[in-house]
Amino acid sequence: MIRFQNVYKRYASGRDALSNLSLHITPGEMVFLTGHSGAGKSTLLKLIAMIERPTRGQMIIRGQNVTRIRRKKVPHYRRSIGMVFQDHKLLFDRSIYDNVALPLVIAGLPDREIGKRVRAALDQVALLGREKRSPIELSSGEQQRIGIARAVVSKPPVLIADEPTGNLDPELSLEIMRLFKRFNAVGVTVVIASHDLGLVEQMGHRVIRLSGGQLAGAERPDGSNAR
Amino acid sequence: MAATPGSAKKRIPLTQQARAYFLRHAQTMVGALGRLSGQPVANVMTVAVIGIALALPIGLHLLVENGRELSGNWESVVDVSVYLHEVADAARIETIAGELLDWPEVSAVRIIYAEEALGEFAELSGFGQALDALENNPLPDTLVVTPADNFTDAETLAGLGEALAAIPEAEMVQVDTDWVKRFNAILQLIRRTVGLTAFLLALAVTLIVGNTIRLDIENRRGEIEVTKLVGGSDAFVRRPFLYGGLWYGLGGGIVALVLTELSLLLLRGPVARLAGLYGSGFELRGLGPGGIAVLIVGSGLLGWAGSWVATSRHLRDIEPT
After folding, report:
1. DSSP state, B317?
2. pLDDT of residue B74
């Protein structure tokens, strides 16, 4: 599903964020990325999201070599990747409904279809019935659930999340992680970057540890793949 | 759980997709208008500036068009005045007039005897008493020759003038086409000036809209980033701004139209009075339906173009980080 082959990423500042990174995430897998800040977690996710381009190496995602994908093709590519951010990246001047509907509006779906899917997505994150409200009225945990609803509303095969629980207390964090687990259970490939090692271990999935932009080790606790 | 992976577009018929596409455009268009109404003061000012910038060349254009019509009227009624020697008596004058009527170039001949001319002049000029002091009438008998309809161009008139001058009793022939030519030349000059002004002001309008849209883009940076993150194409991100520019242009066009029509309304009375004094039924012409259509469509396009320039330059720079 996601394959990195000898990927390097050097920023314009000269900092090497990733060096010679190779990894493979199989379809339907749920994977955690851990490591200190600056280890390359965010960069790895940005590469998957095509927010950044690799300096060297190959990236094959969903069977397509996207290393040198043309700029014009990036938007369409991004529609197959659901993204969740630590700061949610919601639009506070729009209703919850409009926030979640955005990917479907972009995809050009008819309004009726959008309505159905938005309500289904909000139902999955337990926020149904609040469509008309502004995200600003909600708590941080709830805002993150809107972000997740927006990420999954177009049913992307891949879901990536960068520190999705970074601002949440342990209880809410667990709730969010369970949510991801449920999406993974229906076949979505999930990649989550988190520095919360305790929480990550609790989830029981493959953990990819990064250090200085390189693979520091991968572990697969027993039974994790079977969920 | 309904979150089965797969493309979001599957299973939706093409016709429905097309309908959704046009509906989405309409929504974006209305949405852009709604967004503009969110900052009424600033946007009304922008629209007013655009409207004034557009009204200026339109006003000049109307001035030229009305002037051209006016000179056209005059050209067709241009007469040739034949001033006669004092020696010609009334009977002789009438004979000449009768002969002239047989010429193919001549459609009518009017005789103004010297006494009539003096009386008329005294009445119109208000110099009645001063004229009484004159011992004899300084004005000659005059034949006013109206050329036939198809002999009114400048060359034929000049030929007719020469022919009339050849009449022994004619002292002087005045073919008054020079001023019509000069007037037309002046109009030509003004028209060229109007063209230049229109071009410069159209440029100004695109710049005004472009700059306004640029600020709008800056204010909505976050929204643009998020839209790009969830897969919004350049065209999708650009669309609301283009419609915003279109609205600015259309609004400016309507303001320009209102300004022009108001000015015409204010000028119509005085112009009619002036025309009446010259015995003319001339009336100021407005833009007319065709002109209004061109103004509205043109101003909309200008706004759209301004926005297009701004979005081309600035949207690319905003990428999610």
Report:
1. T
2. 60
Convert the pLDDT of each residue in B115-136 to its tens digit.
888 877 777 776 777 777 777 7
Q: Name the phi and psi angles at A217, rounded to 5.
A: 150, 150
Nearest CB partner across the interface for A75, out of B2, B12, B231: B231
CB contact under 8 A, B17 and A110: yes
User: Within this chain, do residues A2 and A64 fall inside the same structural domain, yes or no?
Assistant: yes
Backbone angles phi, psi at A109, to 5 degrees: -80, 150
Query: A7 with A113, same domain?
Result: no
Confidence band, pLDDT 50/70/90 cuts, at residue B71: low
Residue B5's pLDDT is: 47
Q: How far apart are CA B187 and CA B176, in angstroms?
A: 18
Among residues A155, A178, A206, the one where a domain terminates is A155
Choose from A87, A100, A106, A188 for mutation: most chain B CBs within 10 A: A106
Residue B274: strand, helix, or coil: helix
Residue A193 located in a structural domain: yes
Q: Which tens digits make up the pLDDT trace of A28-52? A: 999 999 998 888 999 999 999 999 9
Q: What are the chain B neighbours of A152 within 8 Å (beta carbons)? A: 3
pLDDT in tens, B226-262: 999 999 999 999 999 999 999 999 999 999 999 999 9
Cα B122 from chain centroid?
A: 40
Q: Locate the chain B residue with the closest alpha carbon to A119.
A: B2
For testing the chain B interface, which of A9, A122, A154, A183 should be mutated: the one with the most B CBs within 10 Å? A154
Does one domain contain both A7 and A116? no
**Closest approach of chain A CAs to the CA of B3, in angstroms?**
6
Asked if A186's CB is within 8 angstroms of B12's CB, the reply is: no
Complex-level ipTM: 0.89
* Domains with residue ranges and CATH for chain B: 27-74+181-314 (no CATH), 79-176 (3.30.70.3040)
Which chain B residue shows the shortest CA-CA distance from A53?
A: B321
Contact A79 B8 (CB under 8 A): yes
Considering the domain architecture, whether residues A17 and A108 belong to the same structural domain is answered as no
Give the residue from A76, A105, A143, A146 with the most B CB atoms within 10 Å of its CB, the best one to mutate.
Answer: A105
**Residues making up chain A, counted from first to last:** 227
DSSP string, B127-195: -HHHHHT-SS--PPPEEEEEEPGGG-SHHHHHHHHHHHHTSTTEEEEEETTHHHHHHHHHHHHHHHHHH
Quick one: A110 and A142 in the same domain?
yes
Domain of A185, in residue numbers: 1-80+160-227
Residue A46 lies in a domain: yes
Number of domain units in chain A: 2
